[in-house]
Amino acid sequence: MAKTRSSGTGPGDIAPDGSAVEFYAAQPRNEEAAALVHGALPPGASILELGAGAGRVTAPLVALGHPVTAVDDSAEMLARVTGARTVCSPIEDLDLPDRFGCVLMMSYLVNYGDRTALLDACRRHAAPDGLVIVQRETVDWEEAPRAWSHDGIDFRLSELERLDPERCAATIEYRMGERRWTHSFVSRRLGEEELPEVLAASGLRLDRFLDEGHGWVAARPA
């Protein structure tokens, strides 16, 4: 396989990172993630959601009283977002004049892209007393199940290759009824022991973890 860039196949539009727009738009709201973020913030805190996709977390955050600015590099994804300001831009290039009570970057984006550039963008947009919330992978892909199902969707890890000690290339197949998509990507490990140094390189400091598995990282401007 040896792919080093993200790509995707299947019906409908495919975002620049290989994500299938129709697939994500068809999924239910992620109320659990929204509740976790909401619980870490003051009421009504403004949120910059980086990599918002089709708005699965955006909508419940808005319903919980947060003004959300949703950022994605796919205009087709953002067309599915409701109730929030939208900005179409790569995260790394984003430079808004606003500062936010929370900068939120989920979906393991910190594992898939240039983590320094991504975290720099988080720091750039966080208010001095704001919170940066990042979701990272905590399970090595080589230890992950090869097939699983939830919410009526069948998932299959169809390809996996270790590129080096830190990176794996993977392809996941998604099936919903007769529709089938694939998403190929490279994941780079970000271990808990690395977090203080990685965050510090972008002017952030580790504040706490929001979950028992330590996949949800809360940081503050240093």
TrEMBL record:
Organism of derivation = Actinomadura litoris
Q: Which residues form the Methyltransferase type domain?
A: 48-134
User: What protein name is recorded for this chain?
Assistant: Methyltransferase domain-containing protein
> GO molecular-function annotation terms?
S-adenosylmethionine-dependent methyltransferase activity
Keywords from the UniProt entry? Methyltransferase, Transferase
CDD domains listed in its UniProt record: AdoMet_MTases
Q: In its UniProt record, which GO terms are filed under biological process? A: methylation
Q: Is Cytoplasm among this UniProt entry's keywords? A: no
- State the superkingdom: Bacteria
Which Gene3D superfamilies did the record assign?
Vaccinia Virus protein VP39
